[in-house]
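Throughout this review, each integer encodes one residue's backbone shape. One record appears below.

===
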Amino acid sequence: MKNAVKFLFVLAIIPLLTMMSCKEEATETEYQKLTTYMAQNNLDLADVLNGWVVGASGLSVDPVDFSVPNYTIFDIRSADAFAAGHIKNAQNVALADLLTAAETAGKDKTFLLVCYTGQTAARATGLLRLMGYNAKTLKWGMSCWHEDFAGSWNSNATDFASPNWVTTGTPPALSTFDDPSVVTGEVNGEDILRARVEAALAKSDWGIAKTDVLDNPGNYFIINKWALTAWDAYGHINGAYRIDEDMSLNTLSNIDPAKTVVTYCYTGQTSSITTAWLNVLGYNAQSLKFGANAIVHTNLAAGSGSVAWKGNGSSSEMNFGYYDGTGLMHDPK
């Protein structure tokens, strides 16, 4: 009799345990599934940033035809810009087709992403890395390859006076915020990640002009992404938080998902790849175009020249040959 009662008790409690289990599973948000998957697959920000950029001086460029044989090159500029001049053997790939092109080439390839200034390429590099590809950004983009393409950086590396670029004050203390909302309709972390990467590739408003930010810094959650020594040496946007080496999946609660997040660095390239990572995680994030080079270029060039356009050691003026749409090679100048 006692055994029968025990048996009936077990039968009665199993459905309750099942319901509790289902309830626990139902409370796990897509954001939680996504961050868990990213943590398990080494997709934290430090992993994505590890070796993500290469200067033209660090490439093995053929001295005769100026090809870069160690890379599969994806040039993500417009078709017209590509036809005007590109690196030998580069493929012109639209951002919307980036994942398809990478899948066709295969994960055994090392990709070099090329754009006008290095900023869009940095974003594309980050998104490819999140999908498991070995990708790098050409620092400074085609602007560094030949002076014929340097216009974008030449016109944007400048000094810009603003009362909201300040040189005093310590970084403000960080607060704690709720998780951002991630809604894709997918069930598992891998599929959620792909959906978020695809959405990020389709996003066009991921960059923001310095005037928009400096005119109204209080409208944004601003992240200064460089070392404390640089904060002291070059100044910062008024009200910015310094979140650099500590930015990770474990510290995302320090970022306010209710505001537009603006990240800035020296050149706009590191902030672009960081912004891509934040976009995938559900933040409405934008990268400050051209970074601090668009605000305090002279000081950057005089200090740490490697982070300044045409700065000493920056690898921004390499002067290699290139090819136009007819296949004609244009010599270095």
The first helix runs from residue 2 to 26. DSSP finds twelve helices and 14 strands in the chain. The chain has two domains: 45-149+317-330, 165-307.
